[in-house]
Amino acid sequence: MHTLFKAALILMLLAAIFSLGQALFYMMTERPDSNPKRMAWALTRRIGFSLGVFLLVIIGILTGLLKPHGLGG
């Protein structure tokens, strides 16, 4: 269960990064007179994936699947 949860978390994080890359590509390649819906949709998906990652981290900590640790000292 731990491995499956962590794999889902990593996949959602990679999807958010990929979607951010898509938005950058659309921003750089589309002409100014075209409709920027593809870039906006890619950024919207990134926000959704990022919220999903945040919720999975919270759920993981609350259920004990993820264990946070302190920084040094």
UniProtKB/TrEMBL annotation:
InterPro entries for this protein: DUF2909
Key words of the record: Membrane, Transmembrane, Transmembrane helix
TM region positions: 47-66
Pfam families: DUF2909
Domain of life: Bacteria
Protein's name in the database: Twin transmembrane helix small protein
